Every structure is written in structure tokens, then in C-alpha cells.
Here is the input.
Amino acid sequence: MPANRSTFLRRGIAVVAALPLLTLAACSYGSTAEKDSSAKVAAGSKKIDGLDTVKIGYFGNLTHATALVGNQKGFFQKELGATKAKYSVFNAGPSEIEALNAGSIDIGWIGPSPAINGYTKSKGTDLRIIGGSASGGVKLVVNPKKIKSLADVKGKKIATPQLGNTQDVAFLNWVADQGWKVDAQSGKGDVSVIRTDNKITPDAYKSGSIDGAWVPEPTASKLVAEGAKVLLDESSLWPDKKFVITNIIVSQKFLKAHPKVVEAVLKGSVETNKWINANSDAAKAAANKQLAIDSGKPLPANVIDPAWKSIQFIDDPLASTLNTEAQHAVKAGLLENPKLDSIYDLTLLNKVLKAEGDSTVSDAGLGVK
Here is the structure.
């Protein structure tokens, strides 16, 4: 993995703060839906540090299943005692970063690009990445009548979720590796990159306005259910087939004030991932039950079953892959010279892992000194 740490917004923090109105509308910027945990506070438990609540954010995506399952099965609440876990569900990274900065949430599950963007935009003052949650779960799915090979992607219309988001950067990097040219900002070139909210990507596919999409689960499997075919699994492009797709972040202010609460949430996350990996079918059902609570309906079996199989739930934040993803954004012309030193603080996670008898994880030289 490249050790050079550079990356951020030559034209933008614009990717986060000055996107076209269409992009902002597509990602429902600033919208959250608070969900109280179904888990009850155990009788006789005590508040940690006297804190009444800890506010936790996540997306309604299967790549955030650690948070979904931890909420649904009460793993976080168990570790928090009488400090109540309060949940907010987000549609996109920018809104979750805004909520973290405003104090509306304390801890969040989020993708690597929004974490990098948020850290860089604040000049390293607002957040830290404190753990990993998931790897994989991203695919290039295409209309098999129009695209039969990777070479056929040239000249076609391919959707990504948002300008500068994790999948957008990955697709632009893959396009460049094919020797094709695309203007990152406009999406025009040898391939047409159509930035489309995941919620409407299946309808865009059905209408024929896109020929395929580079998207996370469960959107990829939703397209397959509509007749698309998986042309490429992004994990095949990475060493050991692992790359970070979901991190755990915390407000630096909250981390400093309430480290015991943060440690409890991390312990809940580690316990959740152990349970997920030991009870795959039950965990899938729990994640789907929470998705139904959060969104109004569960995923059908023909979507959740293949999607679930493509995601690995791990505690390691795979820090070196985050640095590589940042370099991909630099290569695409979306980011410039970010200082990612100290973006990680894995002290509490490694404390939890060591206590559990598990191997500790690396910050790839990007940790708090």
C-alpha cells in the first residue's frame, strides 16, 4: 500500500460543501430519523460517567450491519448499562458529518470518503476514526444485454451514488486503470458517470437511463433482482480481497470527555461482530428486522441473501486501504494534499481487543502520536 499521505479537495471540499443542488437533494442532506433502541436497560445498571445518553448514527445499509445488529440485539445497550443508546439513521455521509460536528450524534458508522472529507475539512479537529466495521460489499453490476465484458463498459452510462463518495472514487480509479479518460467533476468522457442516489438507482436501471452501476449492498443486489449481472466485485481489486467500507468515528470532544462510554460502544461493536460471524443467518435476520424498523420494509430474500454473503464484518479499520482510497481521490483530481496524520485513534479498540484475547490492529502510521 502506498505510504504517501496526500488527499483532499482541490476543487472542493466542494465535494462535500459545494456540490450542485441536484447532488445535495439526492442525498437528503441533513435529514435524520431517530430510532430508540428496542433493548431495555438492565435493572440495577449504572450510568457510565454519569452520562444519560450516547447518540449513535448509522446508515440503513447492509454495510452498516454492525450498527443495525448491535441496535436490534441490544449489544451496545448491554455494555452501556444505564447510559441510554439513542440512534439516528442517515442517508449520506455529509449529513452524518454535519450531525457529528453539531453534537447531534457522538459516534457514527460511516464510509471512508466522508470520514476523510470531514477530517480534512476541519483541519483534523472534529473527528477520529476509532474502529472498523466492514469490508467489501461493493460491485459493478451491468445490463447484460448492453455490457458483456469489462471492455464493453467504455461508452456506457454507469451510476455511482454521489460525486466524490467512496464508490465514485473507486470507479473513477478503475476507469483510469483501463486507460480511459473521464472528467471527475462532470462525469463526462470515455464512460459517462451518472451520480444517482442509491434509492433511485434501481428505477434508473429499469428505465434504461443507466447501463450499470458501481454501488454498495444492498443496491447491487437490488439491480441483480431487476435482471442486472455482477461484472466485477471490488474486493477482487484489493490485496487479500479486503478494503474498508465502513468505519466507526467519534467526535474528538466526546472522546476526550467520555472515553469510558466510547470504550463501551467499541466493546459492543466487537461483541456484535463476533456474534454476526458466529450466527450468520440469525444476524442477517436481525439486520433485516432493524432495516424494516428504520425504513418501513425489510429486504426480500433474493436481495439480502447475495448481498449479505459479499460483506465481511471485521473490527480492523484496514487503515492502509483508507490511505490508498485517499490516493485514488487525488489521482482522480478530487482531493489534494490532505494531512491524514492522526485521523485514527485505535487506543480504546486495541484495549478492548486485547482484553478479549484478540489480535490488535494497526493505524498504518496514521494514528494519534
The chain is about 40% helix and 20% strand. The first helix runs from residue 14 to 17. Residues 1-34 have pLDDT under 50 and may be disordered.
